[in-house]
Amino acid sequence: MNEAVKEVLVSENEIKEICQRLGAQISQDYAGKELVVVGMLKGCAPFMMELIKHITIPMRMDFMQITSYHGGTESNTVVFKKDIEMNVAGKHVIVVDDIIDTGKTITEVLNIFKTRKVASIELACLLDKPEGRVVDYTPKYVGTIIPKAFVIGYGLDFDELYRNLPFVGVLKEEYYQ
Ligand code: 5GP
Ligand code: MG
Question: 162 CA distance to ligand 1 centroid (A)?
Fold first, then answer.
């Protein structure tokens, strides 16, 4: 365990099982379809690498990196740091992210993909914090639901640290107070 971690919420074994389950489900749902898996950098990386091992149908992958500034109103600005390289028109896209909280980031990302005329778009996320939601959105592929706490590990950072932890844990309060 790491000294910054108050408690482990999702163990490495549980994450493996989650990826097996979601990978099998995706492989079934997208059989015969042209699938592009788009990872949201940087948090997606460990989850996406484990998940795609369990996708048994042909697929392509690409990456996107955005910064989202949430203003006081509904006018959010998404700033691209990196866009995908592929043309996804007519393709079935699954966006992969570490966690969905308010739902604002993913809403902006989904809108971007809709303007690119994808055949379909869904979200696969390792963690869901439904208590934090301010935008009505229910992701199709969810690893596990967690309570409203600040978590680190398995891609999730605090000041860019802890992304490499092989599990998801709650950050000790004294680290951000
Ligand atoms: P939202 O759904 O609120 O727009 O944003 C989700 C993003 O906020 C995630 O991709 C992640 O970067 C960040 N985030 C939300 N909750 C947590 C958390 O508990 N820990 C960490 N490290 N990042 C979080
Ligand atoms: Mg993120």
Answer: 14
How many angstroms separate the CA atoms of 107 and 16, rounded? 27
| Active site residues per annotation | 101
Owner of token pair 């914090």:
129
CA of 32 to the centre of ligand 2 (A): 30
pTM above 0.90, yes or no: yes
More confident residue, 20 or 69: 20
Nearest CA to ligand 1 atom 13: 99
Mean pLDDT of 93-98: 98
Which of 98, 110, 133 gets mutated to test ligand 1 (max ligand atoms within 8 A of its CB)?
98
Q: State the maximum Cα–Cα separation within the chain, in Å, rounded to a whole number.
A: 50
User: Cα–Cα–Cα angle for 115, 26, 13, nearest 5°?
Assistant: 125
Taking the CA atoms of 114, 116, 117 and 122 in sequence, report the sign of the dihedral they define: negative
- Across the range 166-175, mean pLDDT stands at 96
